[in-house]
Amino acid sequence: MIPQSGQAEPGFTFGDGVQKNKSCLSCHKDKELVGSANQISPKAFQHTTHAQLGCKTCHNTVSDSHPKDGKIARTTTCSDCHTDIATQYSISKHSLSVPDCSACHNPHSVHKPGEVYALDLNKTCTTCHTQDRITASHAQWLPQSNLHLGSINCITCHTKSDTFVLSVYVSRRDQKKTGAATTVADYAYLKSKASSDNIAQLVDRNQDSYISIEELRNFNTNPANKDLYLKAILTPATTSHAFQISDKSWNCTSCHAAGPDAAQVSRLVLPKQDGTFQHMDIEKGANIAALNVIPDFYMMGSSRNTILNMLGVGILAGGMVMPIGHGFFRFLTRKNRRKE
Question: To the nearest whole number, what is the mean pLDDT of the chain?
Answer without folding.
Answer: 82
